[in-house]
Amino acid sequence: MAVLIWLMEDDTNAKKEEEEFNTGPLSVLMMSVKNNTQVLINCRNNKKLLGRVRAFDRHCNMVLENVREMWTEIPKTGKGKKKALPVNKDRFISKMFLRGDSVIIVLRNPK
Q1: Potential cystine with 98: which of 62, 70, 72, 74 (Cβ 3.0-4.6 Å)?
Q2: CA separation for the pair 53, 73 (Å, rounded)
Q3: What angle do CA 108, 60, 42 make, to 5 degrees?
Q4: Predicted structure pTM score
Q5: Whole-angstrom Cα distance, residue 23 to residue 39?
Q6: Taking the CA of residue 79 as centre, how many other CA atoms within 13 Å lie in the half-sphere pointing to its CB?
Q7: Long-range CB contacts (< 8 A, 24+ apart) of 91-97?
Q8: SS3 category, 80
Q9: 67 near 32, Cβ under 8 Å?
Q10: CA torsion angle for 88, 94, 95, 96 (degrees, to 10)?
Q11: 87-98: strand order across its sheet
């Protein structure tokens, strides 16, 4: 009997979590998975990720595909020279796992 109640509670919790994913803040990620659309993610390391979300969880851990990672670097200069201008850099990553604690904000890509 206790196992049956536990299974019913587990099923109820799963439905509740799915409802929260569809209507709450994580709906941005859910829509990206369903529609295969890109999201822009700002990370704590001051880098931006533009890619498609394949999977995610409540902690914002994500599996991303076709990711373009973008950041700026300030080149080192010699003594007595003017400060160098920031340089935009980027790289392509075909598949990656992003740990959720490094996520600051997730934006859907406007069309």
Answers
A1: 62
A2: 27
A3: 50
A4: 0.80
A5: 17
A6: 0
A7: 92/66, 92/67, 92/68, 93/51, 93/64, 93/67, 93/68, 93/69, 94/65, 94/66, 94/67, 95/63, 95/64, 95/65, 96/51, 96/63, 96/64, 96/67, 97/61, 97/62, 97/63, 97/64
A8: coil
A9: no
A10: -20
A11: 87-98, 62-73, 48-56, 38-43, 103-108
- Mean pLDDT estimate for the chain: 85
Amino acid at 110: P
Residue 80: which pLDDT band, with cuts at 50, 70 and 90? low
Helix (H) or strand (E) holding 90: strand 87-98
Neighbours of 105 (CB within 10 A): 11
3-class DSSP assignment, residue 87 = strand
> Comparing C-alpha atoms, which of 52, 51, 98, 43 is closest to residue 71?
43
Q: In angstroms, rounded to a whole number, what is the distance separating the alpha carbons of residues 98 and 111?
A: 24
Task: Report CA torsion sign: 39, 107, 26, 99.
Answer: positive
3-state secondary structure of 103: strand
